[in-house]
Structures are given as structure tokens and as C-alpha cells.
Amino acid sequence: MEASATVTINTLAQAKKAMGERIFNLSAGEPLVETGHYFKNILDWVIEHHQTHYPPVAGIPELRNESANWLNKTYDTNYTAANTLITCGGKFGIYLALQALLNPDDEVIMIAPYWVSYPSMVEIHKGKSVIIPTEEKNQWKVDPEAIQKARTSRSKLLIINNASNPTGVFYTKQELEKIVEVAKKNNLIILSDEVYSGMIYDNNKYTSFGSFKNYSDNIIVAQSCSKNFAMTGWRVGMVYAPEPLIKIMTKLQGQSITGTSIVSQFVALEAMKNSSVIMPEIQKEMQNRRDIFIDTFNELFNANLQKPAASFYAFIPLTALKAKTKSSVEFCKETLDKGNVATVPGLAFGQEGYVRFSFGAKPQELKDALHALANFLK
Ligand code: PLP
Q1: Ligand 1 center to residue 222 CA distance, Å?
Q2: In angstroms, rounded to a whole number, what is the distance separating the alpha carbons of residues 18 and 307?
Q3: Tens digits of per-residue pLDDT, 215-257?
Q4: Given the CA of residue 236, which atom of ligand 1 is nearest to it?
Q5: Which CB contacts under 8 angstroms, 24+ apart, belong to 301-306?
Q6: Can you give the pTM of this predicted structure?
Q7: In 3D, which of 359, 210, 206 has the Cα closest to residue 279?
Q8: Which of 180, 164, 176, 168 lies closest to 118 in space, CA to CA?
């Protein structure tokens, strides 16, 4: 089992920083926007009201309820508290869904470039990953026909990450409709990773798989406060699914992590109550950072990169970086070791020849990092 490449690079970068080196970190998968000030009073309230004991396994009722309302009103879904499980981040929600559903040798169809953790999580649960490649010239989007071709009698699940880490692509409602059709035809459960739903740019509208109500018995939506509310450290995620599956996942959660920190759950509740303020604030800031990142990159590298439509990643070909090597791992190692710029190799996402840059850092840091990279690569 591979350690998560993003976590590994980030840890290496932190270690160099701890040694006193100036590190330009473009590897972290988080929006570095402060939202803590929204939650100060809640922390006092939690202590005053002695809300510091074990939480209910599936989550505090107020948050399960508010999370269902939040998704319903934001993305036109139709979930209740009973369809909602509060987990320790979206990551553990995905993990639990796979643990609940997979039998040995069950096949899980996923699309490359994929989020680094999917194949490893499938492996942990003794399933088999079936990977469908996509290409930049097709905006990294999967052709529903390719899903049909990848399907076998052992196929159980289809993981779709909309919007995508690492490519920044997102699917329209019409495109998702076609994917639902193929899933329906082949009895595939859709595990929809929607943790970047709040970072959709240029006034485009996000569609959740959860809004396809005629297939909702076979759809699981993984969500999170991490990116949408810039709350990565609080570790609160949500899974929306049919009630029988939520019950199984709740048992698994009870026998593994007991539940999600109760303090974090009250904070998440406050975040959701203020979602109409917090989410647009983060979205606007990330769109601004995207523009700064891409404009600066194009200028310094004499390139013509298009602006990613969603999430906060730019998946850049080694050719645009004028790299001397064809290995993304070699490139990232060298730029971190000698140039002090941290990025993540495309290979970790199942796509050689590309490097993932995060533009979640603050604008000045983005500019400084790109200047440092350009100088190093000169
Ligand atoms: N899914 C994708 C595609 C991600 O990029 C991440 C985090 O980087 C997650 C899920 C999990 O995030 P968290 O566990 O912080 O909610």
C-alpha cells in the first residue's frame, strides 16, 4: 500500500520548513482561508454547556438535520437526517462506504486522473480498481461509453469525483444525466465525491448526483466541511445515502472511530447555518486565487494554460513547465529538494506527464512560489 502522495509531499515540505528553510508549498489540498472567527462563540458555548462528552455515533441530531437541509437547499436534493451520517472528514465517509459495500474481488470503476486515495481504499477492502483513462484534450471528462465498456459482471461501484481533484474539471447536469443512465443500465452504485461542490467558478451551476431522485437508491454522496467551509482541521464530513446503508455505515463507524469530535460537530453546525455567507466568501476568494495563479504562470512560463473550471488545482503538463525530465516524480522531487517548491506528481493521480499545483495558498505566496519555480527551472 502506497502512503498518500499528497500527504507525503506535504509532510516533506513541512519537515524542510521546520529545519528553517523557506518552502513554497503548492502541494497542500486546502483553501488557506480563515473561517475560525465565525466559530469563536460556539467554542465558548460548547464548554459552558458541557458538550464535551461522547457524541452519538451517527452524529449529533442537530447536525444530521442541518446537513440534510444544507444539501437539499443548496443542490436540490431530498435527504433527511436519517439519510445523513456525520463522519471524520469526507475521506472517512468514502472509506466507510467502500467498507460497507465491497466484497472481495468486487470491481470499482474510477476515472483517471483520480484522487490519490481511491485505489488504495479499494485495495484495503479487497476490491479491484478498474481505471478509465481520460485526456486533457477532452477536458479530462469520461465518455459514458467507456463506462459501459469497463463494466463486467463483478462491477459494483462507480466513483465519480465532481468537481475533480486533480484536474479541476466539473460535469454539467446533462453530462451527469448520461452517466446516471449508464449506471442504471448496468446496476452500478454511484459513489459521488462532491467535496469541491462549493468551488465552481465563472457563475457556473453545480449539480449533485443526489438531485437525480429517480436513482437515489443507488447513489451515495460524500460531502465535507473541509473545502466548502475551509475547515480541513476540524475533520467533519457527511455521507448521504439510503437509510439501510447509513445504518450499516453507522455500525462500522461505531466499531472504529466511535464518532466525530462533538466540538467539531457544533462548529460544523454553525458553519452550515451561515453557509450563505461563508461559502460565497471562499468561492470568490478561490476564483481570485485561480486567476492570479494562472495569469502569473502564463506570464512567467510563456504558456497558455486555461483556467480550471472548479476546485483549486491546476494540472499542468511537464511540457508547459519546460521540464527536462518526462517523469513527474523526478520533477517534483527535484523542485522540492533543490528549488524548495512543493508540488505533487501526476503519477500519484494515475497520470504521468503532469504535475498538480494547488492554488489554495494566499495570493502573495502563489506569486512568490511561481517566481521561485521559474527561477529554479531557468
Ligand atoms: N475527496 C477528494 C477528491 C479530496 O481531494 C479530498 C481531500 O483532499 C477528500 C475527498 C477528503 O477530504 P476531507 O477528508 O478533508 O473531507
Answers
A1: 9
A2: 33
A3: 999 999 999 999 999 999 999 999 999 999 999 999 999 999 9
A4: 16
A5: 301/374
A6: 0.96
A7: 206
A8: 164
